[in-house]
Amino acid sequence: MRRSERIVRITQTLLEHPNRVLSLTDMADRLSSAKSSLSEDLAIIREVFEQEGWGQLETQAGAAGGVRYIPDCSRVQAEQFVKEMATVLADPERILPGGYLYMSDILGKPEVLDMAGRMFASAFRKTGAEYVLTVETKGIPLAVSTSRYLQIPAIVVRRDHRVTEGSAVSINYVSGSRRIQTMSLSRRSLPERKKVLLIDDFMKAGGTLKAMTDLMREFHAEVVGVGVFMSTSEPTDKLVGNDYISLTTLDSVNETEREVKVIPGTYFES
C-alpha cells in the first residue's frame, strides 16, 4: 500500500471514531504496515490536524499502545460559524409570537449540527461527562451530534411517559411560558450516579433545563455542564445559574419594527 493511501485510510478511521482509543497493533495488521511506519504517518496527520484546528492526536506507548483523535474547534472556525448563524437568525421573517425565533430549519442541517456538536464537545470534553441528556424534540439532533464527538450515549427526556419504556421517573415543572408541564425519563435509560451533560436548542429563563437538573437528582446524577444553541440576554439570571455555554445569544427582538439582533454566546467566554 502506498503511503498516501495509508494516510488517507488512517485519517478516515480516526475521523469515524472520535475520542476512542484505536489499537496500533490492529491498525498495523489491517494496513499490512509496520508500527514504525504508522508512527510516521500519525505524526504527519497530527501536524495537519493541529494546523487546521481540527483537533489533536493522543498516542499511548507500549505493546498495547493506541491512538485517539480528540476533536477540537479553533477559535477562528467557531467565530466564523457563529457569525454565519447570527446573520441567518437575524432574518425578521423568523420572528415568532412571544419573542421566539424559528430555528427548526437550521437545526435540521447536517453541517450546522456537525459544527455545533464539535463546539460543544470541545467545550465540555474535560468535564468527564458519561451521558448527554436532552429533552424532546428540537434538542435531539444537537445532543446526538455532541455525543458522537464525545463518544458517549445520548438520552432523550420525554414530555409524556411511554409504556414501551417501562418504569420511569416523572416530574412537573413550570416552563418559560408559565405553563405546568411534565417530563419523564425511563429508569433503564440512565444508571444512577453518572456524570451528565445537558444540551438543548433554546434557553430563555432556563425553566426546562432547571427541570432536567431536578430530574437528574432523582437518579443521583451529577450535571457537569449545560450547553444551548441559543440563549436570550434577558433575563440575565437564569434558573440554572450562569454556569452554562451558549453558541449564540438572542439579544433583542422587536416584533413591531421587525428587527432581530443575535450576538455571540458565552462560548467565547469559557
Description:
This protein has 270 residues and is of the alpha/beta class. The chain has two domains: 3-71, Winged helix-like DNA-binding domain superfamily/Winged helix DNA-binding domain (Arc Repressor Mutant, subunit A, Orthogonal Bundle), CATH 1.10.10.10; 75-269, Rossmann fold (3-Layer(aba) Sandwich). Helix content is 34%, strand content 29%. The protein is built from seven helices and 13 strands. The protein has helices at residues 3-16, 24-31, 35-52, 75-89, 110-124, 140-150, 207-218, and strands at residues 22-23, 55-60, 66-71, 95-96, 100-101, 131-135, 154-157, 168-174, 180-186, 195-203, 222-232, 245-254, 259-264. The strands form four sheets. It has a six-stranded mixed β-sheet with strand order 7-6-10-11-12-13, sandwiched between helices. A three-stranded antiparallel β-sheet has the order 1-3-2. Strands 4-5 form a two-stranded antiparallel ribbon. Strand 6, helix 6 (140-150) and strand 7 (154-157) form a beta-alpha-beta unit. Helix 5 (110-124) crosses helix 6 (140-150). Keywords: DNA-binding, Transcription, Transcription regulation. This is Pur operon repressor. Belongs to the purine/pyrimidine phosphoribosyltransferase family. PurR subfamily. InterPro entries: PRTase-like, PRTase_dom, Pur/Pyrimidine_PRTase, PuR_N, PurR_Bsub, WH-like_DNA-bd_sf, WH_DNA-bd_sf. It comes from Collibacillus ludicampi.
